[in-house]
Amino acid sequence: MSTVTGQLTTLDGWPVAGGTLTAVDAGGVQRARGTSGPDGRIVLDGVPAGPYTLIVAAPGHDPLARTVSVGAEPVTALGVLELNRAGLAVLPAPGTWVIDPVHSSIQATALHIGMSRIHGRLRRFSGQVQIADPLENSSVEVLIDPTGVDTADEMRDEHLRSADFLDALRYPEIRYKSDGLRRVDHTHWIVDGLLTIKGVSAPVPLQVEFHGTGPDLMGGLRAAFSATAEVSRDDFAIDWNQSVLAGLLAVGRTLRIDIDIQAVRS
């Protein structure tokens, strides 16, 4: 007899509680079954030696099957069993998907005096994703209100809204419009597009990860994406800076953009 151990997690490492692991022998007979705890760990006690098919099932996740040979050792360690969230492989259906700003975020990160990072959010935006068939013909357009910049410091935010940076009074809109979509694999894509700030447009590719589709609490259908990009301030004539010691700049010239999007099918 052996004890079979393992841990159920999501693809990004979060533990999956309440999942079941069932051991079925070569004759199709269930020999053991266990449930994962809050940390995702699962234990099957008293499993006889021999070949088994292990079946993993957890609410909200796709099932997983694995073969294993249990020997005479007291413990058979399976290691980590990663589960796909249900719907991950289901691409969004063709049509218009409207971005839900309440459950989405756009964050920018800049290097400050060459040592640490300052984070800010653009809190007011809208947009939609137009899913096409084939998917490579899809498009996205987002409008951002630059007055919604928020770095948790009002004096700094006012400076960012001024002509030194976003010049929000003269240019009340930041726009991103895609002009191409390239597939990397079944969950990763590159969106090519133009970002327009202060009336100046420059290409900014987005590295996009698709997180799946699923129902929401009101009977709608949602799709989730995350994306990252790097934006050079020089491309948009946002060149204000101050030198602090031997050419060290107060604000880095490159911004990292992190985006999380939920879109609702219209």
Automatic annotation (TrEMBL):
Gene3D superfamilies: Carboxypeptidase-like, regulatory domain, Lipid/polyisoprenoid-binding, YceI-like
Pfam family, one: CarboxypepD_reg
Every Lipid/polyisoprenoid-binding YceI-like domain range: 96-264
InterPro entries, per database record: Carb-bd-like_fold, Lipid/polyisoprenoid-bd_YceI, TTHA0802/YceI-like_sf
Family: Belongs to the UPF0312 family.
Full protein name: YceI family protein
Organism (species): Pseudonocardia yunnanensis
